[in-house]
Automatic annotation (TrEMBL):
Lineage: Eukaryota, Sar, Stramenopiles, Ochrophyta, Bolidophyceae
PANTHER family given in the database record: PHOSPHOMEVALONATE KINASE, PTHR31814
Keywords, alphabetical: ATP-binding, Kinase, Nucleotide-binding, Transferase
One annotated GO molecular function: ATP binding
Name this polypeptide is given: phosphomevalonate kinase
One Pfam family recorded for the sequence: GHMP_kinases_N
Main location: plastid
Length: 372
């Protein structure tokens, strides 16, 4: 579970504290990319930010958790230079600079800076990850001098970080800014960092919480929900995967022929599953089968073969309503929705397979804000 890391810190007049939740795309992997509804649940895993004003023209992002401080010189609405406390050569970090610059461009020129302290729930990363800096740059692009070994659990850490950074800055300097504007700015920054226009459900969940989400012709339709169908369990398989590359292959392979037919089938069963979830009826029937078929025809391990047996065994437990590899699938995690009386049995099955149970549950809420 994610507790507020700043709860024991004495509040300072003028400070603002913000947190944004992670997500799990329970239903709607791939079909969300083609104007179909998806079911995204917000989680107790959160990014927390504490913003304190500073009289100097510098912006500082500090994380005791990751032993790192990034300091930027502010000139009006521009970040003109950077230093990094860990001794490595300063390098651009788009996961920090892009949301900072996006927020600053939305505001009048600042005459003074601010200090940000960042803390992330450890459940965003596998249990064998180690950090000596912000664990938000892929290890393949880590500069020399970093000791950075991280594997994500697929809970939307990038979207959470970007959204929480933008929210804290915008609401500190422009407190009347609407939540819709904050979401738009966060979506923009996230797209810039990712180098593409994504579906947007991860940022939307970080802002609004659990929801049925649809992207259609550039517009986003968000239906907030407050429905819990038992306990959500997430398992850390400690491998991680690159969902972007797999998404491209799946979408390309489903443009015509048998792939197109199977994609349509997945869309149908996903929409039926969401309807069943909302109505309190049986849900999820046929989803795994459709995902497996689409994965076979596109030569992608959406549901990896090494996960099939444990998911089959999980589904067969009395009290389990749904089990799957969430989101785009792959090797990030597995999850299930289970009634309380069957939780221990599911955990035992997963432990036998070497799967760690993530200390996370459905939260339902989006952005949380405290002002002092």
């Amino acid at each position: 579970m994610s507790e507020d890391p700043f709860k024991d810190e004495e509040p300072v007049e003028g400070e603002i504290r913000v947190s944004c939740p992670g997500k799990v795309l329970l239903i709607g992997g791939y079909t969300v990319l083609r104007s179909s509804p998806s079911l995204s649940l917000s989680l107790t895993s959160r990014f927390h930010i504490r913003l304190l004003p500073s009289p100097s023209p510098t912006l500082t992002i500090h994380s005791p958790q990751y032993l790192s401080t990034h300091t930027y010189t502010l000139t009006g609405t521009l970040l003109s230079s950077q230093t990094v406390s860990h001794g490595s050569t300063p390098h651009p970090n788009p996961y920090l600079t892009t949301p900072l610059q996006t927020a600053l461009h939305h505001l009048p020129p600042l005459t003074s800076g601010f200090n940000l302290t960042l803390s992330a729930s450890p459940t965003f990363y596998t249990s064998d990850s180690t950090f000596t800096s912000f664990p938000i740059i892929p290890s393949s692009s880590t500069p020399t001098g970093f000791d950075l070994k991280t594997t994500k659990t697929g809970l939307g850490s990038s979207a959470c970080l970007i959204t929480s950074l933008i929210t804290s800055i915008i609401l500190y300097y422009s407190p009347k800014t609407s939540v819709a504007e904050i979401e738009t700015l966060s979506q923009t920054a996230h797209n810039l960092v990712q180098g593409k226009v994504g579906s947007g459900f991860d940022v939307s969940t970080a802002v609004y919480g659990s929801q049925i989400y649809t992207q259609n012709l550039g517009s986003r339709i968000v239906d907030k929900i407050n429905i819990k169908r038992g306990r959500l369990l997430l398992g850390d398989v400690k491998e991680g995967s690159e969902s972007g590359g797999m998404s491209k292959r799946v979408l390309k392979g489903s443009e015509d022929g048998e792939g197109e037919i199977l994609f349509r089938k997945l869309k149908e069963v996903n929409e039926k599953a969401i309807e069943g979830y909302v109505k309190g009826e049986r849900f999820g029937e046929g989803v795994r089968s459709a995902i497996q078929s689409l994965g076979t025809i596109t030569n992608c391990e959406i549901e990896p073969s090494v996960r099939k047996n444990v998911l089959d065994e999980t589904e067969n437990i009395e009290g389990v309503e749904y089990a799957c590899v969430p989101g785009a699938g792959g090797f990030d995690a597995i999850c299930c929705v289970v009634r309380e009386e069957a939780v221990d049995e599911v955990k035992e099955v997963w432990r036998k397979e070497g799967i760690d149970i993530l200390d996370v549950q459905e939260d339902g809420e989006g952005i949380r804000i405290e002002r002092f």
